[in-house]
Fold this protein.
Amino acid sequence: MKLYTSAAIARWLDLTERRVRQLRDKKIIEEARPGLYNLLDTLHRYIHYLRKDGTDNELDIDYNTERARLVKAKREKEELELEMQRREVLRAEDVEQVMTDMLLRFRSKLRSLPVKLSPTLATETDQTEIFMILKKATDEALEELADFDKTFGKGAEEDGPAGE
């Protein structure tokens, strides 16, 4: 039986010598003696390995794919930070806080309408006048919800630029 070096095996399998050593270390191919391989056995083992889709195990990570994912994630993060600085996007926490404040003020105004209007409406007999008073009061309460941009701008400026 003739034995071959890793350089010869690499040429036969169209691999680098380093890849041959990696396959040896992963027990895909075996050395007959230190640094020497049985060509026929090595070919059979390598073909069997390739038939299994050439996967050593699922934990192997393709460096280029992972690097591309990392670069993409960093780019997306920087784009989002830039959009936040330009005030093109808003942080969810900021929007939630402003909306909560607006709705609480709106709720409070609606709940105060009976107390505020009952003395006035008790003395009114003109239905048109009652309608106008109620309409004016409800419109004032709805104003709380109408100016989201103005309210958010005021709330966000208190937090500093981009919510910092």
User: Anything to note?
Assistant: Residues 3-51 form one domain.
